[in-house]
Amino acid sequence: MQLPWKKRNRRQARNDAPSLLERVNWRVVGVAAGVIGGCVAVALLLTLALDRPVRRVQVEGSFQRVSPPEIEAAVVAVARGGLASVDLDEVRARIEGIDWVDHAIVQRRWPDTLRVLVVEQVAAARWNDSGLLNARGELFLRNARYVPPELPLLEGPDGSEGIVAQLYLDAQGRMLEAGVRLTGVRLDERGAWELELANGVRVRLGRLAVTERLDRFIRLACPLVAKRAAEIGYVDMRYTNGFSVGWNARSALAVAPQEDATPDG
């Protein structure tokens, strides 16, 4: 049995306990709030002090197709606000939208300068009628005003730039070692491949086993082509184990077709 006086003592103890508000050290809270407010104020003051208008655009890079004034105009068009608040990603995207710009790096230089480093595209091949591919096989210019005629010509349906460029890259060095120079690669709508050499000889690879046929051409046919290019119009690799040669004198001569007498695709 619990005595009444004990109940009263417990109730009184609960009433005498300090409340949550009484337990808070308001002095510490005030000091912390003051520190935070001071930091915010300092940050705002620094931002205002550093966020000066952009007065200079420092353009760096090796320029052949793009001019520094063109870069500066692109920066001015999107460099809103001060130096601290300007959106560097937006500026970079605007610059990279210029023809012949591969990529750009944009940095702040206090107190009032934007530094822009520009890397131009390097044209590695022509694409179809007037396009240009870079060394990564990317179509960076679809309708170029000037297409360097000395570049290799790669042709194919839209979207096939990567695979056509890859075959060219895989073959060019090996062909040079074999004594011939590759100047063109064509992929037609049916998926058939054809190569063009600097001496005017065309190499028909067809649609099937293209890698194996290319290897066979380099290993077996290149020595013949290197020696007698003036007499050869085309080399047809669309055979199981051999190839045939189309001679300029219009007399076809089969060279080591060991199985099939007709191309197989």
CATH fold node name of the largest domain: Rossmann fold
CATH architecture of the largest domain: 3-Layer(aba) Sandwich
CATH superfamily of the largest domain: Cell division protein FtsQ/DivIB
Radius of gyration, in angstroms, nearest whole number: 37 Å
Notable characteristics:
265 residues, alpha/beta, Rossmann fold, 10-stranded mixed β-sheet, 3-stranded mixed β-sheet, 13 strands, 37% helix, 25% strand
Tell me what you see in this structure.
- There is one protein chain.
- The chain has two domains: 65 residues, Ubiquitin-like (UB roll); 133 residues, Rossmann fold (3-Layer(aba) Sandwich).
- 37% of the residues lie in helices and 25% in strands.
- It has seven helices and 13 strands.
- The strands form two sheets. A ten-stranded mixed β-sheet has the order 6-5-4-7-8-9-10-11-12-13, covered by helices on one side. It has a three-stranded mixed β-sheet with strand order 1-3-2, with helices on one face.
- β9 and β10 form a beta hairpin.
- α4 crosses α5 and α6 crosses α7.
- The N and C termini lie far apart (105 Å).
Walk me through the topology.
Blueprint: H1 4-16, H2 20-23, H3 26-50, E1 56-60, H4 68-78, H5 88-96, E2 101-109, E3 113-120, E4 123-127, E5 131-134, E6 139-141, E7 153-155, H6 161-178, E8 182-187, E9 193-197, E10 202-206, H7 210-228, E11 232-236, E12 243-247, E13 252-255
Parallel strand pairs: 1-3, 4-7, 7-8, 10-11
Antiparallel strand pairs: 2-3, 4-5, 5-6, 8-9, 9-10, 11-12, 12-13
Helix pairs in contact: 4-5, 6-7
